[in-house]
Amino acid sequence: MSKNRILGVGIAGCGWVSTQYVPAFEKNPHTKVVALMSPRMVSCENLARECGLKDVKLYTDYQKLVDDPNVDIVAICSPQHLHVEQAVLAAEAKKHMVVEKPIAISLEQLKMIRDAVRKSRVKTVVGFVLRWNPLFQTIKSLLFEGALGDVYYIETGYNSHIAEWWSGWKWANTKEYGVSSFIVAGVHALDAARWLSCKEAEKTNNINEVFAYSGGHRHVKDLKYYGLEVLLAKFENGAIGKINSNFDCASPYYFPITIFGDKGTIVNNRVWAPSKFPGQTDWVTIPTILPDTADVRHHPFEGEVNHFVDCILKDKESHCSVEDAVNTHEAALAAIISYSENRPVKLPLIK
């Protein structure tokens, strides 16, 4: 594909996260937002006005968006229970796509989206935007340099008191559409554990087995699923992980990261790595941006979008593709099986 060609972007879903994808695509020199879609025309109009978009098409029918010949990329920012249906239609229309997390809410849906993308061979990126967070990038560099050696244990967690303040609460707190704490948001912590336990620069560490527990205090009353899920994971490289998703916390948003390697340790932005810092006598604190808020305005969507556009232009697969994200979502769904049946669950679950 010619690098001089401007790729047209269609945004499906005009809610919270779309307000960050629009400016990210508008800033990239190779893309332009040409269409917005929402079941409510007023939502399209409000997003266009908020982002200063001119000469943009507005649709209330998703099929018309994917049929638009000027749309090369579809950014799926709709509620999570619509992601698979929309992604399959985009794949059939040969549109490259950004798929916000979660990409699916059941194993059947997960297989559908994976198979559709495989068949169409379009480029994809999944909205695990924290991979472009400066702390994550710093940690990944240290891992690649060998500063921690081989990772043998990792802990990550998504802790946020998700409630009525969030625009998606009305559907996300239901069992039918929300499904679980891990599915709604905790997949970020699962993805972080896979990404930050792997030393290779553009690869993740697959989870081979999980055992999970559930708990919390809002189950049934305010949430139709457990607000707390804790998952123990065995990774393909032999490492062990503990990942939690906690919607019941009485605290501000908190995303802790602890990584133990045979040559060093990282606790959030504090590093103990004598091979990297000779003569080290205390923790080295990296002054960087941490994943310390759930506010989408804090997240590095521009980095994610620039990476994805580069993948399209260079005809290469993203390290954060739908294919890669299958393992993360399998682990989240396996957690439900595990604590429901009180047994470990081996992955993969779909063939």
CATH architecture of the largest domain: 2-Layer Sandwich
* Strand order, sheet with most strands: 14-13-12-11-7-10-9-8-15
As a whole number of angstroms, the C-alpha radius of gyration is 20 Å
Low-confidence stretches: none
Please identify the top-level CATH class of the largest domain: Alpha Beta
N-to-C terminal Cα separation, in Å? 32 Å
Count of strand segments: 15
CATH-wise, what's the superfamily of the largest domain? Dihydrodipicolinate Reductase, domain 2
Q: Enter the CATH topology name of the largest domain.
A: Dihydrodipicolinate Reductase, domain 2
The main β sheet shows up as: 9 strands, mixed
Number of separate domains: 2
Globally, the shape reads globular
Q: Whole-number average pLDDT?
A: 96
Keywords:
single chain, 9-stranded mixed sheet, 15 strands, alpha/beta, 33% helix, Rossmann fold, 6-stranded parallel sheet, 351 residues, Dihydrodipicolinate Reductase, domain 2, 10 helices, 2 domains
Short structural summary:
By secondary structure, the chain is of the alpha/beta class. The protein contains 10 helices and 15 strands.
Tell me what you see in this structure.
The chain has 351 residues and is an alpha/beta fold. It has 2 domains: 7-129 and 302-322, NAD(P)-binding Rossmann-like Domain (Rossmann fold); 132-295 and 328-346, Dihydrodipicolinate Reductase, domain 2 (2-Layer Sandwich). It contains 10 helices and 15 strands. It has helices at 18-27, 41-51, 62-67, 83-92, 107-120, 134-145, 169-172, 181-196, 301-314, 322-341; strands at residues 7-12, 31-37, 57-59, 73-76, 96-99, 124-126, 151-159, 207-215, 228-235, 240-246, 257-261, 265-267, 270-272, 284-285, 345-346. The protein has a 9-stranded mixed β-sheet with strand order 14-13-12-11-7-10-9-8-15. Helix 1 (18-27) links the parallel strand 1 (7-12) and strand 2 (31-37).
